[in-house]
Design goal:
The chain has 6 helices and 6 strands, in the order H-H-E-E-E-E-H-H-E-E-H-H. By secondary structure, the protein is of the alpha+beta class. It has one domain: Aspartate Aminotransferase, domain 1. A hairpin with a 4-residue loop joins strand 3 and strand 4. The chain is globular and about 40 Å long.
Amino acid sequence: MAMFQGKAKTVTEYLDALPPERRAVVSQVRSLVKKHLPKGYKEQIGWGVITYAVPLAILPDTYNGQPLCYVALAALKNDYSLYLMNVYSDAKKSKWLADEFKKRGKKLDMGKSCLHFKSLDDLPVDIVGQVIASTPMDQYIEIYRAGRKKTARGK
């Protein structure tokens, strides 16, 4: 997952570097993530953004030697991004997320794992919370390992 090269080394530094209005949005989404995050994932700075990852102490053999990212949160130049890696690895979850956005009359602006939004009003927070809460760390590790077995590098 190639992201950004920020200078912040801690979440506090990351937040302090943002303009107040952007800090407020990121702080609210951060609270949402932390409220719904299954046990075991660790909040840290990775790739220049706030990440919630499987610690290397639990999964040391990741493909890139970095903690396995589960969720990431970034304030970009023109919008915000919430990376939902469990959606990337689960077609049913991805479809469910799209359907739920549509049911609520929200426009889903999403890449493979990256949910883009310009304001909190763009996010159905209950749905985003459900997605974040939906994959316990042990299950996410199993999904990751199964996916690695399917690749040449994973052999």
